[in-house]
Amino acid sequence: MVSNKFLTALAVGLPAIQAAVPEIAGFTLTWSDDFVGTANSLPNTANWIIDNGTSYPGGPANWGTGEIQTYTSNVNNLKLDGNGALAITAIKDTAGAWTSARIETQRANFVAAAGGKMRIQASLNLPVVGTNGIGYWPAFWTLGAAYRGNYQNWPSIGEFDILENVNGINKVWGVMHCGTSPGGPCKEKDGLGGNRECPGTTCQGNFHKYTLEVDRSATPEAVRWFVDDTLFWQVTSDDLPADVWTQAIFSLPAAAVGLSLVSTVPAINPATPLANQSSESSEDSATIIPGAFVVEWETGVADAPGFYQSLGLEVEHRLDLNYQLFKGASFRIVNRSNDVSNDISGLIAARPEVKSIWPVRTVKIPTVKPLYVGKNRTAISGQFVGVDKRQAEEPDTYTPHVMTQIDKLRAEGYTGKGIRIGIVDSGVDYTHPALGGCFGEGCIVSYGWDLTGDNYFPPNSPEPDADPYDGCVGHGTHVAGIITAQANELGFTGAAPDVTIGAYRAWGCNSLTTNDILLDAFNAAFEDGSDIISCSAGQYTGWANDPWGIAASRIAAQGVSVIVAPGNSGRSGMFLSASPATGVNVTAAGSVDNTITPLLLTAGSYTVDNATGISEPFGFISGGPEFAENITLPLWSVSNRSDSANDACSPLPDSTPDLSSKIVLLRVADTSECYSSTQATNVAAKGDGITGVGTVTPAQGATWINLLNQGSNINIHIVDPAAADIRYEAVTNDVSGDLTSLTTAWGPTWEVVSKPQFTAPGGNILSTWPMVMGEYSVLSGTSMSTPLIAAIFALVGQARGTTDPVELRNVISSTSRARPWFDGTNVHDILAPVPQQGSGVVQAYDAAHAKTILSVSEISFNDTENFVAQHTFSIRNTGGDTVIYKLGHTKAATAYTFASGSKSASQFPNPTVDDWAELSFSSETISISAGSSAEVTVTVVPPRNVNATQLPVYSGLVTIEADNGETHNIPYVGVAGSMKETPVFLEGPEYGTFLGYFNNPTAPNTTFTIPRPGTTPPGNVEYPSIQTSLLFGTQMARADVVALSETGLPTTAFFDIESVGFLSGFPEHWVVRRNYRLGFTGELADGMVVPEGTYKIVFSGLRVFGDRGKREDWDFAETVPFVIRYIE
């Protein structure tokens, strides 16, 4: 839907700093540009350099960041607007090429004086791109002055991204880059950063103030990022050398365009948004906090202050962890001294008080991008239209509940009453009317704690308080609504609306936390009496041996159901379930896609044939530009067909009427040869440009075209979206509905334990959202399936009269409904692999009323070297009559971990092979009298016609059909190959292990002349850069620095390797497959600086099921020799 005036693809405004920004106490304004000047003129070149082309002279192509636009000085891309603002516009031409603009301050000497502070700030209005913002990349940032004239010395010159925004997401990212790339102190190429949503109003379509503060007035020195004076990220000199921010810098605003683009004109009939376009990031961003540790005390020892004093080190206490199931503490060593010990972790581990030690790691909550979100309102009543408020006694038609039989249990009166669910997440907006509107005794959210504090930033110590309110992330509020939302304007309720919720806020506004805080949260939820603990986050490891995973397993062993999201790494292949979902007795909740796509639309109306007093409602998704005022205009359609493939892909005919006073209906082309921008250009040519863009549902578009074909006249009435109501509608998902979500993480674990246990709807889920962020939203991921399964545990537990986690998990697993294999394109006539779906979609009613209880929820036959050919399980008949059971087998797709000829794990969809296991049973038919049990032994013959080196994972279901009408299943999994024979590291650049710079292997004995650690580097420094790939999981990964010349350093023998120490961050324990990009500055992990000389790096990894004491169970890969020289 397109109307008149003009088309703007992207605009970034920088209003007058001097005029718009008030004076700041204690600061003196030293530079500004108020952008006052003639409209359609370029900015003042006395202040600004205008970049042109696709790179700096001699610099990396595409500006070194993969941008696809060409920067110009054309006023179509860069101009003053005549009202004290600068507009930067990215434009896509009819051939699909993009142009935009980037400017740099002429001055390059902005710096914070020693003992002082400096602030750089601007007000920016980011582009409104609606749901089609993929690829947009507006930014406001700085670079070190040394970058000018030498464009190969990034990131050593330093970079502060004051604002980065991508894909039209309502978030601001603040990022710091420094040191070496890849790796280095700033974890390049990702950098160190945080993010948050813009306060009050969205980043898009509204001016917000973005500020960078460099503070050298106190110790430690710090760099801070603000949006509208709200701090959302900081880095201190305790974390990094302060010389990163003592360099002179210059500033750059720009509007870049990334590699993947969607046009600014949306369709009236786009493909239904699916959950396989996940709204959650599957990337695991966990990093070790240097010098920070979690320790578990030996029994009875809990004197943390005395322990710190005895270490003889300067220690910053983080947390007391004195719980029933875990007694310990977390702390951070500061100002480490090399004369104390070269191995601080070893020093601590050797103390008799210490039972176990782990590094403190950051954990990021899954990044949520709502597919649809409501508007910020101060009250709900009357704002949502299109549905009636459901009364509790009415039938439950909410599709996730129908898919899982929750509706049937609710019809019987089960609501979870008396069950306590502890939610470990980002907190809950308990002020939401659908979540009860209050916190404390007598409220729905009646207990809990804020374990981080409002402004928590790792590695700082948390500042907990008693208020678990979530008004800045939203994740936990969405989770809570899935469990317990009350009747509301959108016509749905939570699955178990009468449970009692405990909210444990373990992530702050920057979406980061640490594993010690999560350990704290889980134990607090357990000791506060939670019957069920639900957590929708994790770390991608495939192992369960970190302190968080150990805590979850211990709690599960104490009779509490622990339900955890396995993650959204499904597109990255197998063996990637997240911890602690991988834990023993922990339930991992996979995801299937909703059978509908819920839509939260801007409400409009239309009339037919000028009918007075009669109007029909409709809803639309605002595009870019938004309609900015109330409009009533006639509708005109480019085509008389609702399935047209090429509307307006060619210039419209001369017979086309004047479109300047019409709303134009068209369908986005079904061909890649026609861009939406081409369609918009052809429509605009018959009118006076474009003033608004919106998307309606396929059904609405077809209704209008049918009316127009009948000769009717249609007038569309649009209210300014800022004042419009929200309309709820739903579109049938006939592509992936009720199929396993493509993003749901795959198991099994590295020990070949089946994960996930089962699935529930997690793709395209409507639930609550913080009031200040829009009230309701639609999200996707295992974060959404996890709370639904937690609620089902509550309902089934209430119905069966038990909270025993083993019985509940077994009966829910055995009654689940397995789904066919969907490879993203085709649905196959075979079950999806068990490592993807577990036993299938949970069926709450069948689980609640089952009379048959099995003793196991899954079976693992392990791999060929640890093969367990037989398993025995019991069947218990709890009914009043004798039941005859028939045993059988249903196969699932056998999937390869590796593609043919590849040493790297295959991405989704994993290749499959037409060969399966054969199962036999000690008895194929068994009769069990009422109240009795019987044992059955199952024997497996793994598939034979497979390539074992590709590590085939076979799976399926043991089926148990009862003559009382019940059907039960036990999922099984096995590996027809050797986990231990699968390499962890391989040598050579072809396998990703080499010494290099910008990913080019470096010749042996190359000399690197670098600044000595702790000194200020010059502008251009090339550090040794090491890259390697961990091809498979490992219990331990080492990166040893080996001296090849005389250094005088002591060495430690590791088999035949004489190591002088580790690269920073090593050794790592319980590691998933991953790529390493590391820099070496001359400083080892223990803080020791190596002398000048010749070195090499030797990587080693213990193979799965390997023995640490046997060299043959380790894989090794080493770099070529290199020489270190220091700048004197």
Describe the protein's architecture and organization.
11% of the residues lie in helices and 32% in strands. It is mainly beta. It has six domains: 246 residues, Jelly Rolls; 77 residues, Peptidase S8 propeptide/proteinase inhibitor I9 (Alpha-Beta Plaits, 2-Layer Sandwich), CATH 3.30.70.80; 320 residues, Rossmann fold; 135 residues, Glucose Oxidase, domain 1; 132 residues, Immunoglobulin-like (Sandwich), CATH 2.60.40.10; 139 residues, Immunoglobulin-like, CATH 2.60.40. The strands form 16 sheets. Strands 23, 33, 34, 35, 36, 37, 38 and 39 form an eight-stranded mixed sheet that branches. Helix 6 packs parallel to helix 11 and helix 7 packs parallel to helix 8.
The portion of residues assigned to helices is: 10-25%
Outline: globular
Q: Which radius of gyration do the C-alpha atoms yield?
A: 30 Å
Residue fraction in strands: 25-35%
Active site: 425 (charge relay system), 475 (charge relay system), 783 (charge relay system)
Family: Belongs to the peptidase S8 family.
Signal peptide: 1-19
GO cellular component, one term: membrane
Descriptive tags:
single chain; 1128 residues; mainly beta; Jelly Rolls; Alpha-Beta Plaits; Rossmann fold; 6 domains; 8-stranded mixed β-sheet; 7-stranded parallel β-sheet; 11% helix; globular; disordered N terminus
Nutshell version of this structure?
The chain has 1128 residues and is mainly beta. It has 14 helices and 68 strands.
